[in-house]
């Protein structure tokens, strides 16, 4: 019987064989083409409930496309995408999405922005849920402010709170901290880890930044340059919290990931072959 670590990107096993429920996210043979140009795939990827998966790769390799396919904003040219065992046919409340720009409604208060997706709830329940989300994201004191009165980090926290409002099983984040200064970014990374641990949500987090990918994820996936394919799947054995940025294992994982991306991005190189990938994996206890 395959272990959890044998299941990942190559050939997803079925739920019964794993002895558990469905994968949180499962992509099988997914390919995306625009005007006959394949930009992504084929991708086979299985993500277990509660994993924090970061996706890193060169610009234009299809990271956002991958996220949009899971969000249901885009339908794949080939293959299938499922969330919690159900085929994705469009966006849904089981998936929260956070973009690089917070996309808050400027005319609404922070509280109204956070509660926007909860309009179907009775007023008291909605207020209670918004208060809980503001507390969770450290925004209780900013409830009545408008987005323009917030710092960049606060705006992004409000966007995260809004995405979590419907208690999605999956949180999809597209470079959410890319526009923040380095200090705010580090603080937000730690806050996100805390949020993830307290909510148990499955997270897929797109980033350009190898450091961020390794620091945040329980699993960091590298995509090759176009068409984007999974070329590396790094599983973290770092202690969850406190999460020491200077930990030697963090440095080693970062180097492995950076080397794979560098080699895939070198001129004239396509995605690494199975043999090349195997060479990276040999004797490497940190990999699945
Ligand atoms: N709607 C679209 N129509 C045509 N081409 C598209 C569309 N969306 C994305 N592409 C192309 O698909 C490729 C992948 O784009 P995508 O935004 O997914 O990459 P990315 O890895 O997220 O890039 P970056 O890191 O620069 O944000 C690019 O070549 C892009 O031009």
Q: Could you explain the architecture of this structure?
A:
The chain has nine helices and ten strands. It has helices at 15-18, 63-71, 110-114, 123-136, 152-164, 182-199, 210-216, 248-265, 274-281; strands at residues 25-34, 37-47, 52-56, 78-83, 86-87, 95-98, 170-174, 202-207, 219-223, 230-235. A six-stranded mixed beta sheet has the order 6-7-8-3-9-10, with helices on both faces. A four-stranded antiparallel beta sheet has the order 2-1-4-5, with helices on one face. α4 crosses α5 and α7 crosses α8. The radius of gyration is 19 Å and the shape is globular. Mean pLDDT is 84; it is low at 1-8 and 269-288. Bound molecules: adenosine-5'-triphosphate. Adenosine-5'-triphosphate binds at residues 34, 39, 59-65, 208. Residues 264-273 have a biased composition (Low complexity). Residues 264-288 are annotated as: Disordered. InterPro entries: AAA+_ATPase (IPR003593), ABC_transporter-like_ATP-bd (IPR003439), ABC_transporter-like_CS (IPR017871), ABC_transporter_ATP-bind (IPR050166), P-loop_NTPase (IPR027417). It holds the Pfam family ABC_tran.
């Amino acid at each position: 019987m395959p272990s959890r670590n044998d299941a990942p990107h190559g050939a997803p096993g079925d739920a019964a064989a794993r002895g558990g429920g469905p994968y949180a996210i499962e992509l099988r043979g997914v390919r995306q083409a625009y005007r006959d140009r394949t930009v992504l795939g084929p991708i086979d990827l299985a993500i277990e409930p509660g994993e924090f998966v970061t996706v890193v790769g060169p610009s234009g390799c299809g990271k956002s496309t991958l996220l949009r396919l899971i969000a249901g904003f885009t339908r794949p040219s080939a293959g299938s995408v499922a969330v919690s065992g159900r085929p994705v046919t469009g966006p849904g409340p089981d998936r929260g999405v956070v973009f690089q720009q917070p996309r808050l409604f400027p005319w609404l208060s922070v509280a109204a922005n956070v509660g926007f997706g909860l309009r179907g709830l009775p007023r008291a329940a909605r207020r209670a849920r918004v208060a809980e989300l503001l507390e969770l994201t450290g925004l209780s004191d900013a409830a009545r402010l408008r987005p323009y009165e917030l710092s960049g980090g606060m705006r992004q926290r409000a966007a995260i709170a809004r995405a979590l409002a419907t208690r999605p099983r999956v949180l999809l984040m597209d470079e959410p901290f890319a526009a923040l200064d380095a200090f705010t970014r580090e603080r937000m990374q730690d806050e996100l880890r805390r949020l993830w641990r307290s909510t148990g949500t499955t997270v897929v987090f797109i980033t350009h930044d190898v450091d961020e990918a390794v620091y945040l994820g329980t699993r960091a996936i590298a995509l090759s340059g176009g068409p984007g394919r999974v070329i590396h799947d790094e599983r973290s054995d770092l202690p969850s919290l406190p999460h020491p940025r200077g930990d030697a294992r963090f440095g080693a994982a970062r180097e492995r990931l950076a080397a794979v991306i560098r080699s895939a991005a070198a001129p004239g190189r396509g995605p690494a072959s199975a043999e090349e990938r195997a060479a990276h994996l040999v004797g490497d206890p940190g990999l699945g």
